[in-house]
Design goal:
One of its GO terms (molecular function) is ammonium channel activity. The protein has helices at about 5-35, 40-65, 95-115, 125-145, 150-155, 165-180, 195-215, 225-250, 255-270, 280-295, 300-305, 310-330, 335, 350-380, 385-390, 395-400, 415; strands spanning about 70, 75, 90, 95. It is mainly alpha-helical. The strands form two sheets. Strands 1-2 form a two-stranded antiparallel ribbon. Strands 3-4 form a two-stranded antiparallel sheet. Helix 6 runs antiparallel to helix 12 and helix 8 runs antiparallel to helix 9. The radius of gyration is 22 Å and the shape is globular.
Length: about 450
């Protein structure tokens, strides 16, 4: 094996673990935003993505994304099964296997992001089928386009850590699935409030923490680019928190904890493609813009009547678009490379045009393919849960479990599914039945 850089290797090992933590963090973030009767299904969609995408990445995903280029569209299958990588070193002094493992974590969370748009109404088995097909046909090739030697990267589009390949990609697919599955029973007339805001905040905190591995880890080494990415990630997220809650304050009269958490995530999304190309003042400006615009973009689903349950479109698609395009205004040549000054730093319109090409290409491709996949699943095996299951609670219908057990004597969930009935506790006199109705 070529000589390794122990510092770079240690940093990417740490970053890979940080990025993996983001998907359980996302499960908590999304889970807290759903109703109490569908929180487990929501979280299972993230954990299911971890399981399936990890295996597909080893079988052929990494090879499609980072194998030898074929026509700028896909990699070949020479690295299928991660063959030939046990003793090889990658550019930058880290093992090839470590680079593959780091990129695996990006694939996992990109797929998991989509699930928030179809909360409360998606069957778990068809979701896993969608995950496998969409990752194969969309994420793996698009990752190649952007980072693996494909046409978007070769064109000169800048995407340091995933504005196009991750966030626009997932957001466009989320919009497609929201349209395929249709609106939840009662939406928008009924209010679908988060059932556990502390869980939302915990999930947002874990995402924010893991995002330093996501962005600074994409430098590939513990170097100056990682340092710039880290500080820009922090200040952009902080500025977006303020941008979002100011919009809430002016519009609704109150800043909310959900708004603060959503603002942080929107800022993290927006800075992802730009984190290594901006000075900190530019990152702050980006964060304020993204936080405010994404807060306003939540209203689009009511105007156009698509039921994006947890605002994946407003936060990830819109945030990813803004972050990618703002590179064309805020990039500085000393960080982004020769000729890549943004418009506000004396550059021309060329970089902005390139960024727009990358945005539109990924947006259209992901939306169209995701819609076709989702539509095919819905018309064959059925993607959406029945109305009865949705009203009763999709946790019980899909997993035979409930997140919160309020009975002190009975056994439910998995015990019922296994045919194990609990013995009734003796009672000295009849009691009034206890209501199990909870918020959501």
């Amino acid at each position: 094996m070529p000589e390794l850089n122990s510092g770079a290797t240690a940093w990417i090992l740490t970053s890979a673990a940080l990025v993996l933590l983001m998907t359980p963090g996302l499960a908590l973030f999304y889970g807290g935003m759903t109703r109490s009767k569908s929180v487990l299904n929501m979280m299972m969609m993230s954990f299911g993505a971890i399981g399936l995408v990890s295996l597909l990445w080893v079988f052929y995903g990494y090879s499609i994304a980072f194998g030898d280029d074929i026509g700028g569209i896909t990699g070949d299958l020479s690295a299928a099964g991660l063959r030939g990588m046990l003793t090889s070193g990658a550019e930058g002094g880290i093992p090839d296997l470590l680079f593959a493992g780091f990129q695996l974590m990006f694939a996992v969370i990109t797929v998991a992001l989509i699930s928030g748009a179809i909360a409360d109404r998606a069957r778990f088995g068809p979701w896993l089928l969608f995950v496998g097909v969409w990752a194969t046909l969309v994420y793996f090739p698009v990752a190649h386009w952007v980072w693996g030697g494909g046409w978007i990267g070769e064109l000169g589009v800048l995407d340091f850590a995933g504005g196009t390949a991750v966030h626009i990609n997932a957001g466009a697919a989320a919009l497609a699935l929201a349209l395929v599955l249709g609106r939840r029973v009662g939406w928008p007339k009924d209010k679908f409030k988060p059932h556990n805001l502390p869980m939302v905040l915990l999930g947002a905190a874990l995402l924010w923490f893991g995002w330093f591995g996501f962005n600074a880890g994409s430098a590939g080494a513990a170097d100056g680019a990682a340092a710039v990415s880290l500080i820009n990630t922090q200040v952009a997220a902080a500025a977006a928190v303020l941008g979002w809650i100011v919009v809430e304050w002016l519009r609704d009269g109150r800043p909310t904890t959900l708004g603060a958490a959503s603002g942080a995530i929107s800022g993290l999304v927006g800075i992802t493609p730009a984190c290594a190309f901006l000075e900190p003042l530019g990152a702050i400006a980006l964060g304020v813009i993204v936080g405010a615009v994404c807060a306003l973009a939540v209203g689009l689903k009511y105007r156009f009547t698509y039921d994006d349950s947890l605002d994946v479109v407003a936060v990830h698609m819109v945030g990813g678009i803004l972050g990618s395009l703002l590179i064309g205004f805020l990039a500085i040549e000393v960080l982004a490379g020769a000729g890549n000054d943004g418009l506000l730093y004396g550059g021309g319109i060329g970089l902005l045009g390139l960024q727009a090409v990358g945005v539109v290409a990924v947006l259209v491709y992901s939306f169209v393919v995701a819609y076709v996949i989702g539509f095919a699943i819905e018309k064959t095996i059925g993607f959406r849960a029945s109305a009865d299951a949705e009203v009763e609670g999709i946790d019980n219908a899909e997993h035979a479990e409930s997140a919160y057990e309020f009975s002190s004597t009975g056994s439910g969930g998995a015990f019922v599914a296994a045919g194990i009935a609990a013995a009734a506790a003796p009672r000295s006199k009849p009691t009034e039945p206890v209501s199990e109705k909870v918020a959501g």
